[in-house]
Amino acid sequence: MTSTTQTATDTRWLDDRQQRLWRSFLGGSTAFFDQLDRDLRREHDLSMPEYEILVRLSEAPEWTLRMAEVASQVAHSRSRITHTVSRLERAGLVERESCLSDGRGVNAKLTDAGMDRLRDAAHTHVGGVRRYLMDNLTEEEFEIIGQAFERVRGDLNGQGF
Amino acid sequence: MTSTTQTATDTRWLDDRQQRLWRSFLGGSTAFFDQLDRDLRREHDLSMPEYEILVRLSEAPEWTLRMAEVASQVAHSRSRITHTVSRLERAGLVERESCLSDGRGVNAKLTDAGMDRLRDAAHTHVGGVRRYLMDNLTEEEFEIIGQAFERVRGDLNGQGF
DNA sequence: CCGCTATAGTTGCGGCTTCAACCAACTGCC
DNA sequence: GGCAGTTGGTTGAAGCCGCAACTATAGCGG
Lengths: 161, 161
Prior knowledge:
Chain A is mainly alpha-helical. In chain A, 66% of the residues lie in helices and 8% in strands. A three-stranded antiparallel β-sheet of chain A has the order 1-3-2. In chain A, a hairpin with a 7-residue loop joins strand 2 (94-98) and strand 3 (106-110). Chain A is globular. The mean pLDDT of chain A is 94.
């Protein structure tokens, strides 16, 4: 036990192998997410964050969700959701309505136009996720990656926040 | 063979399990990268992209790299590198000098102040990568993730365009 | 019922990124 | 040697995001 003691300020640096792996993940995921976003913008005039919000709304009863609920589902700040929903509203894809049960609350509701746009964009998006990501992974790898980041997210939401 | 035929415009949707895994990865990596960025800004007044550039320069001979080389190493657009290096230059962490062997070229060079800042920030950054990511993963998982995204990146740089 | 604190959401500003347009220098080819 | 196309890099505008400050409502204890 004695030799493994570390003070809080010591840093466990990465060895060469870990460096390579970390940078591969960083570079690969960066390139991947950028590409998804570009495709969506070019073909459907939607950003990834905008698309994600439309997806969550489309799955909710009445196509409606509280702002805070949207925020927590897509893992974005409340402020960001406000900004993004405002843009979507300006584009006519989403509507805001005040929440009956809570005077502070605001509901975001998908419009028909929003649903139409989402249906189109989904082809591009899912196609990209498959081509760029899943088609380069085995089933097992994909499973491992999903499970791993589930833990990462749980950890950050738990003690992290 | 007959029943598996697909036209180019058909979309292979994700089943429920794939959806869950994909969203876990998306949400987890989003939360993770956001946290890394926040930590760096709060404690060292550096963004992740800025930090990444400092790292690459610090590893180059003469602490110097061509702009395009920086861009390709960190997987960012040239324009983005121009902007980010300009900010770093304004902060005195990097200097620009014109490239002797190619009249179009511009070298970015780390300054002593830049190296000092990088040394401080590295503790925060690596600590975050370990705590938020690696400590939640087994060795095998980390290896798999690194290798997988190496392929993803290669694929995007290759046939991508 | 009052006041205190916590929560929901918005706002404005400043910083970061993208895109398209642009200039300049290199390359190859006739 | 000069023109055509390519590559390296920058620029400015517009969009996107984070942060801190703010308003308003909810909930709770006295």
